[in-house]
Amino acid sequence: PFLRLLEAQLQDERREHEEEAEALKNEVEAxxxxxxxxxxxxxxxxxxxxxxxxxxxLQQEITRLTNENLDLKEFLEKLEKNEKKLKxxxxxxxxxxQDFEASQAIVPAEGRQNERNMQVAVQRKEKDFQGxxxxxxxxxxxxxxxxxx
Length: 149
Fold this sequence. Notes:
By secondary structure, the chain is mainly α. It has helices at 2-47, 50-106, 109-128, 140-148. Among the domains are: 1-47; 51-105.
């Protein structure tokens, strides 16, 4: 059993190594292609007049800066979205803490247990109701107040 475990671990290590090696080979190939593109662009710019070389260099820099700017904007949007999410979670947790502290201060231990049982019962009743609600016109303000609370 111990040898099988070691053999399985060795196979896992070998598989991980092969995957890493393949990923690195792909990365090297992509870098090689990028280098070739840059060399071609460089050779083309050498054939241009000095003014055209400067203009081409400026265009390349503008393109690079534009892409970098777009990447930074995307990153900023992700951070802002995450910040909003975290603020929302913080508000929810703060509300839960306040509710918990209020229930601890007001309700004794036996009352808290009864309150939990009542909440469960109310939730079950709400799930059973479906469809229209019939009520008297004079009960409407009371109904609205209960719906809101």
